């Protein structure tokens, strides 16, 4: 009897150990989700709620520009990521290169809440076969009114204001900076005309660059919050995530009246993802209206993307509205003409 009992206990222990091992294996294989997203763009509260509801651990790496993201992906850095967040032009490129998994709409029922306006803009993937919009918005300019002269221009001309020399920064992003210059000159932000591009470069190098401290897409928000920069080209979430809410009235964020470069950032699943079902769960979770409202509230975003989120938002005061983007252009894939931008951007960035 003792021997039988001992064998029974031993068998139970072995089976229990195997069970735990199996659970651990499943956890390591299916209990993770790897995101590659922009800096300052994934609310901790949303991630924590997703982890709590699904038991899936979310690991996040950040990038500062589409170019940085794409260079890493092309070098094989997409291996291990399950969701990447490219803007419209790079989403288009990734689709054309066959780098993305198709989106199973049956597993993303909340896609029905995506604003129909985005379908008009998203010419690269109107039916969301390979991408699901994360946010439609625009970069802009933040001014700390506590330091800046009161009569500053709410246009791109602000970067030529010598009264604030050494107190400004611009994004380290060629499409954003050159697009802003092109719009200020009255051209399309996607222009590939050689003469127009040269005028834009001359404007940046001769009038704007002497006044700015640096081109920076990563650490400028902290410098702005400390009062080191008075004016920064930025995305609103960068700035407002660093500024206490009781100080938001001191910040004037605006999209220049000439327009700028608007964007649609997307959630895409790269080929080779090992956690596609988890990725689809996260994408669907993000577009749950009440969850999406948390995302908008976190950064002071307007409800431009999810049609039902506004009902659940606490914030009714937005950094910008859809109306503010009426003169803006969406970044498009420039194809071979992108090299024109690349060459001229080297002059902007590195010419003394």
From TrEMBL:
Q: Which UniProt keywords apply?
A: Periplasm, Signal, Transport
Tell me which GO cellular component terms the UniProt record holds: periplasmic space
Q: Which domain of life is it from?
A: Bacteria
Q: Name one GO biological process term.
A: polyamine transport
One annotated GO molecular function: polyamine binding
Q: Which PROSITE patterns match?
A: PROKAR_LIPOPROTEIN
Asked if the record carries the keyword Signal, the reply is: yes
Q: What PANTHER family does the record point to?
A: SPERMIDINE/PUTRESCINE-BINDING PERIPLASMIC PROTEIN (PTHR30222), SPERMIDINE_PUTRESCINE-BINDING PERIPLASMIC PROTEIN (PTHR30222:SF17)
UniProt-recorded name of the protein: Spermidine/putrescine-binding periplasmic protein
**Native organism:** Sphaerochaeta pleomorpha (strain ATCC BAA-1885 / DSM 22778 / Grapes)
């Amino acid at each position: 009897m003792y021997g039988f009992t001992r064998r029974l206990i031993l068998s139970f222990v072995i089976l229990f150990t195997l069970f735990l091992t199996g659970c651990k294996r499943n956890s390591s294989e299916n209990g993770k989700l790897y995101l590659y997203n922009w800096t300052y763009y994934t609310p901790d509260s949303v991630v924590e709620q997703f982890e709590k509801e699904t038991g899936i651990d979310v690991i996040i790496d950040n990038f500062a520009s589409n170019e940085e993201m794409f260079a890493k992906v092309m070098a094989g850095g997409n291996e291990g990521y399950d969701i990447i967040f490219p803007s419209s032009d790079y989403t288009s490129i990734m689709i054309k290169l066959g780098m993305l998994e198709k989106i199973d709409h049956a597993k993303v029922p909340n896609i029905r809440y995506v604003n129909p306006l985005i379908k008009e803009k998203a010419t690269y993937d109107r039916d969301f076969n390979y991408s699901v919009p994360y946010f439609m918005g625009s970069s802009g300019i933040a001014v700390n009114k506590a330091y800046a002269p009161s009569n500053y221009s709410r246009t791109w001309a602000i970067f030529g204001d010598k009264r604030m020399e050494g107190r400004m920064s611009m994004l380290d992003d060629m499409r954003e900076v050159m697009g802003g210059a092109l719009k200020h000159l009255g051209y399309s932000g996607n222009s590939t005309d050689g003469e127009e591009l040269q005028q834009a470069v001359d404007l940046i190098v001769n009038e704007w660059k002497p006044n700015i401290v640096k081109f920076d897409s990563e650490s400028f928000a902290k410098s702005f919050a400390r009062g080191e920069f008075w004016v920064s080209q930025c995305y609103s979430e960068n700035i407002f995530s660093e500024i206490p809410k009781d100080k938001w009235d001191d910040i004037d964020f605006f999209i220049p009246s000439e327009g700028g470069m608007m964007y649609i950032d997307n959630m895409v699943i790269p080929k080779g993802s090992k956690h596609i079902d988890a990725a689809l769960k996260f994408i669907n979770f993000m577009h749950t209206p009440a969850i999406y409202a948390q995302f908008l509230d976190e950064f002071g975003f307007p409800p431009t993307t999810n049609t039902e989120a506004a009902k659940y938002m606490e914030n009714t005061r937005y950094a910008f509205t859809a109306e503010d983007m009426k003169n803006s252009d969406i970044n498009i894939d420039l194809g071979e003409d992108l090299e024109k931008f690349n060459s001229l951007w080297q002059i902007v960035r590195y010419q003394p």
